[in-house]
Design a protein that fits this description.
Blueprint (H helix, E strand, L loop, with lengths): L2 E4 L9 H12 L7 E5 L15 H15 L4 E4 L9 H7 L2 E3 L3 E5 L2 E5 L10 H10 L2 H9 L2 H21 L9 H10 L4 E4 L6 E7 L2 E7 L7 E7 L2 E7 L3
Parallel strand pairs: 1-2, 2-3, 3-4, 6-7, 7-9
Antiparallel strand pairs: 1-10, 5-6, 8-9, 10-11
Bound molecules: manganese (II) ion.
């Protein structure tokens, strides 16, 4: 049986094509999987679990719950856009929240799962923002604001981040090779699967005489994409939007 991995779907009401591909993926490919792992940035943004009643969000939650009810365990790791997804979301969707990073055993292969943003250590400004934004103080302050104000604040943050991204050199937006090596060493030379950079690829790293595979998942801006792994290895599959 195949285990499936996705990330960087960036689901939002304004991208109906990707949403259709995702619903179709949950109804078909994912149904026969041993498990589904969503490695961050399921949503374009998530401002708090008190937004679960939103029609669009409720549709996604219901579709995930249906998949889990059909017998496919589904795991969700936070991305940098949806890291305030909490227990209420997990209960409603029946997904299991995973810490970043998480090690799993997959057909006898130690496999390390990450969103991927913590590997981008060359982007010092982002790492500083990440440390601040993941603090309990920052999250509590955010959650004290009314939902509508949080949505407006996130829209401002997103615009600022898009502007900053355009000004940054491409290599800063990618993972730092030294951080990848250090991570592989720290976790005993596993296979690594992550997203975040939107640079889908299979990399091979040679670290201390060990050969480690690193799979980078694709985003869902043009159709969808998933990585399927079984005892014979992993391969990426593209899902066309109709
Ligand atoms: Mn990301």
């Amino acid at each position: 049986m195949r285990t499936l991995f996705v990330s960087d779907l960036h689901l939002c009401a304004g991208r109906p094509q990707s949403n259709r591909v995702f619903f179709d993926f949950l109804e078909h490919e994912a149904r026969s999987a041993r498990a589904l792992y969503i490695l961050g940035d399921l949503f374009e943004y998530w401002v708090g679990d008190d937004d679960l009643d939103d029609t669009f969000n409720a549709g996604i939650v219901a579709a995930l719950a249906k998949l889990v009810a059909s017998g496919v365990p589904t795991y969700l790791m936070h991305g940098n856009r949806d890291f305030v997804i909490g227990e209420a979301f997990a209960r409603a969707s029946a997904v299991t929240l995973l810490p970043d990073p998480t090690m799993i055993e997959l057909d006898g292969n130690a496999t390390l799962l990450m969103h991927g943003d913590t590997l981008c250590t060359l982007d010092l400004a982002y790492q500083a923002f990440r440390r601040e934004a993941r603090s309990q103080i920052w999250i509590s302050a955010l959650m004290r604001q009314p939902l509508a104000e949080r949505k407006a604040a996130v829209a401002v943050l997103r615009r600022r981040s898009e502007q900053e991204k355009r000004a940054k050199p491409a290599e800063i937006m990618d993972v730092a090779p030294t951080e990848v090596e250090a991570t592989l060493r720290r976790y005993g030379y596993p296979r690594l699967i992550h997203g975040h950079t939107h640079r889908p690829a299979r990399h091979v790293h040679r670290v201390d005489g060990h050969v480690c595979e690193r799979w980078v998942l694709a985003d869902w801006y043009q159709g969808g994409s998933y990585l399927a792994c079984d005892e014979s290895g992993c391969h990426a599959v593209h899902l066309k939007a109709d």
